[in-house]
Specification:
heterodimer, A: about 300 residues, mainly alpha, Fumarate Reductase Cytochrome B subunit, 2 domains, B: about 525 residues, 4-stranded parallel beta sheet, globular
Chain lengths: ~300, ~525
């Protein structure tokens, strides 16, 4: 069992990184597209009311500045607040928000577990009464992120299940799989809560398990803890098959599509990429199209 | 209604009843007085595919045989495969794939769709409905996911001719105003999916509304303009406009045509020449008064800024954009200015920016900033007292939400109109006039009734709300719509509801208001004649 848990954990982490990585690379390799931005474009000088550089006479003669930090700040804020949902669909936000916070914190919790374990391997005492400040900070950080994630995640999962069931607007396009995801995440979060509350109130066993993963000395854990580990690992393996990558692609889609107002300039790198694309042959076959000819020959 | 019902041969899928429609404010607050939408005739039903909602935008002839139906379904699938391939759809593949893969169906976009809301929330107009159908077809017939997985993911659907024909019509129930995309926190763009579905039908199957394709882009490339105006006819129109200018201003104003080396090549939507020549005349008066070096072009395509390709066909879009740029090069102008036409702004300046390379990459800009410059820097003498009547501004989606030209037109109106008031929501949050993505020019069978009663309904409400304190027909009011297609939609919308007579509301462009305020033009330029 010890070895099985360890192998499953290694596999799940490698799998999610590889699967997400492959999807991201595939997406980023897609060709340059025609412009299709939507205003407000956040890096623009006049973003507050949605203005663009096209408001200026002879816009191409002006030096353009882009505030990318504003875009990043906007997206990060959205990650943690989900403000668009709060503004436009508050009743959905009430369930969605704890669910998302549950995800963010459970991932943070596992990252902290890794660093906590690493600190322990390096000789730091990770506990509430640790003489080492970093040890007690890690202890409380792990405990708080873990417990809050279990609670908010469970509330969010149950809340979304109920909301999707009761709100016709949401139910109409929901599938069995949609409800399965809510139940699955509910089980993951509840198992974590159960393990913490009844078996491992300091999460010491969990940290020890991680120490074992780092040192390759796999330890035995209580069945409740083992159940949570297995469920969380399965959750990680399952994630790449869901739309969860929107956590990452959202960044790309905002910067590469919605806010992509980069004008094409003669002799630019962008123009070179476009010329390569014009060289491709198209096989659209409506009567008005020269099927088999290049885009540039249309 | 279930999503998979779209494949069922059960007659008309949805019926729009007057009592379902979104209520309107006074004097349209009694639904019993709502005009009745025309129904398609039995003969039309027999000949065309009208089983979606009883409205005919394209009017696809019914296939003669089952074999023909099967061939068309195969063609549709072939087009869908091409839509998902890099070489055939590099133009929009990245945004398309994102929108297909990452919609979580939270329905946050629903309330931003003018057609969905105004129709009383008919399921087929829900912004997520079309994309979901496309997604299911892709999962089952392209990715070959079937059986249990298909049932678990709720992605079962039967692809048949009924579905394909309904989907073609359905792609023309979205104005591609992209307000739904604007509110999506994940960046999903359901308007783009309507655009991409239209491309399958046009680029693979040769199916598109006649007004957009045969009478639109094809005619423009062949005869010079989607209006049918030839270069020779343009010459006559220019002569006529010069005569009118003399009558209206008492001055001889020359409209330059093909003036080599001019600073500006001004390209109007050619619809202006026929329906609203006062708009093109107003430009001539302003540019003449300001001493600007400008010209019109008389080459094929060069006098018509429209580019309907932006709504349904990337290849037609590119062909027209290249023509515009070639003419500008030939005339050796410094830049192209696009007149008051929203989609031409978006097509020529933004979307075609990645079509025009090298020498064809001629500087292109909107005419609005130069007008703002002339007005705000007092390069023409203006008296706002001449525009002492209520004015509100409509924001054309293509120019505002999709391009970010928001303030210059407002700066002008604040300076020249004493009673300017905004409609709500406004700016980048505006609602479409209901005539976007080609609807304004589509006159097929009973489609004009639909775009007045349904897609234009929210805009009518906005206009009535903006003027609610002065709604009496005795007070003349002006909706400023700096876009030809929006004006076309306002004309039809106001006719449908008899708005001019009942409320005294008139519509027109921006430059007409500028000239109306010009001190050097003795007579009022706006004649308040309904047309």
């Amino acid at each position: 069992m010890n070895v099985f848990l360890a192998i499953l954990t290694y596999f799940s982490y490698i799998f999610i990184v590889a699967a997400y990585g492959a999807k991201i690379v595939k997406y980023l390799r897609l060709p340059t597209h025609l412009r299709w931005e939507l205003y407000p474009v956040i890096h623009e000088e006049k973003y507050q009311y949605g203005g663009s550089y096209y408001e200026h006479l002879d816009w191409w003669t002006r030096v353009r500045t882009k505030n990318h930090a504003r875009g990043i700040a906007y997206l990060l804020k959205e990650y943690f607040i989900l403000g668009d949902y709060l503004k436009n669909y508050a009743s959905y936000w009430l369930a969605l928000y704890p669910w998302h916070i549950g995800f963010i914190l459970i991932i943070t919790f596992h990252i902290l577990c890794f660093f906590g374990a690493l600190a322990m391997v390096l000789g730091v005492n990770v506990s509430a009464g640790s003489p080492d400040a970093s040890g007690s900070v890690l202890y409380y950080a792990i405990l708080l992120t873990g417990v809050i994630s279990f609670v908010t995640g469970a509330i969010g999962s149950a809340g979304l299940f109920i909301k999707r069931m009761l709100d016709r607007n949401l139910r109409v396009y929901a599938s069995l799989l949609t409800f399965f995801i809510y139940i699955f995440t509910l089980v993951v979060f509840v198992s974590g809560f159960y393990s913490w509350y009844f078996v491992d109130p300091d999460l010491a066993e969990y940290r020890e398990f991680w120490v074992g993963l780092i040192t390759l000395h796999f330890i035995h854990v209580e069945p409740a803890t083992a159940a949570h580990i297995v469920l969380f690992d399965l959750f990680l393996i399952y994630l790449p098959f869901t739309r969860s990558l929107h956590y990452v692609t959202r960044f790309f889609v905002f910067f590469l599509i919605r806010w992509d107002d980069e004008p094409n300039v003669r002799g630019s790198e962008l123009e070179k990429r476009l010329l390569d694309l014009f060289d491709q042959k198209t096989t659209w076959s409506a009567p008005h199209i020269h099927t088999g000819k290049k885009w540039s020959e249309q | 209604m279930k999503i998979e019902d779209i494949s069922k041969k059960t007659g008309q899928l949805v019926r729009i009843e007057p009592e379902d429609l979104m209520p309107l404010p006074y004097p349209y607050d009694d639904p019993a007085n709502d005009p009745v939408m025309k129904e398609v005739t039995q003969d039309q039903k027999d000949r065309y595919e009208a089983s979606l909602d009883g409205i005919l935008a394209i009017g696809i002839p019914k296939p003669a045989s089952r074999e023909e139906e099967e061939r068309l379904v195969r063609q549709f699938l072939s087009g869908l495969e091409k839509l998902l391939s890099q070489e055939n759809n590099w133009t929009f593949l990245q945004p398309l794939l994102h929108s297909l893969d990452y919609c979580v169906k939270c329905q946050i976009c629903n309330d931003s769709c003018p057609a969905y809301i105004a129709s009383g929330k008919k399921e087929i107009y829900r912004p997520t409905y079309r994309p979901e159908i496309l997604r299911r077809i892709i999962n089952k017939y392209i990715k070959k996911r079937g059986g249990l997985l298909s049932r678990l993911t709720g992605s079962d659907i039967e692809l048949n001719w009924t579905l394909v024909a309904r989907l073609a019509e359905l792609a023309y129930r979205c104005t591609i105003c992209r307000k739904c995309a604007q509110v999506c926190p994940l960046g999903v763009d359901n308007g783009l999916i309507s655009h991409e579905i239209r491309k399958i039908f046009s680029q693979e199957m040769g199916i598109a509304p006649r007004e957009l394709h045969e009478m639109g882009t094809v005619q423009q490339l062949k005869a010079g303009s989607s209006t049918g105006i030839t270069p020779k006819a343009l010459g006559n129109i220019v002569e006529f406009m010069e005569e009118e200018l003399e009558e209206k201003t008492g001055k001889k104003i020359k409209i330059p045509v093909d003036k080599e080396g001019a600073d500006i090549l001004l390209i109007h939507n050619a619809g202006e020449f026929l329906s609203w020549p006062e708009n093109t005349e107003a430009f001539a008066i302003i540019f003449d008064a300001a001493g600007i070096s400008w010209t019109l072009a008389s080459d094929l395509v060069g006098y018509d800024a429209v580019n309907y390709g932006v709504w349904y066909d990337d290849i037609q879009l590119a062909r027209i954009a290249v023509k515009h740029a070639e003419i500008a090069r030939k005339l050796k102008v410094k830049k192209i200015n696009v007149g008051e036409c929203g989609h031409a702004h978006k097509a020529m300046i933004v979307v075609a920016d990645r079509v025009l390379t090298g020498e064809l990459n001629v500087p292109r800009e909107s005419a609005i900033p130069i007008l703002a410059d002339l007005v705000l820097r007092d390069r023409i003498r203006l008296d706002p007292g001449r525009n002492d009547f209520p004015v509100t501004l409509h924001d054309p989606c293509n120019m505002v939400r999709l391009m970010g030209i928001v303030e210059p037109q407002r700066q002008i109106l604040r300076k020249i109109c004493l009673q300017f008031r905004e409609m709500e929501p406004r700016g980048v949050d505006n609602y479409c006039c209901g005539g976007g993505s080609g609807f304004a020019i589509m006159q097929s069978m009973n489609f004009p009734d639909w775009r007045s009663a349904v897609s234009g309904r929210i805009k009518l409400k906005q206009v009535l709300d903006a003027f609610r304190d002065v709604i009496s027909p005795d007070i003349r009011k002006y909706v400023c719509a700096p876009c030809s297609n929006c004006k076309g939609q306002f004309r039809d919308l106001f006719n449908y509801y008899n708005v001019n007579e009942k409320c005294g509301i008139f519509y027109g462009g921006l430059v007409e208001l500028v000239v109306n305020a010009m001190v050097d033009v003795e007579k009022p330029f706006i004649d308040w004649e309904w047309h």
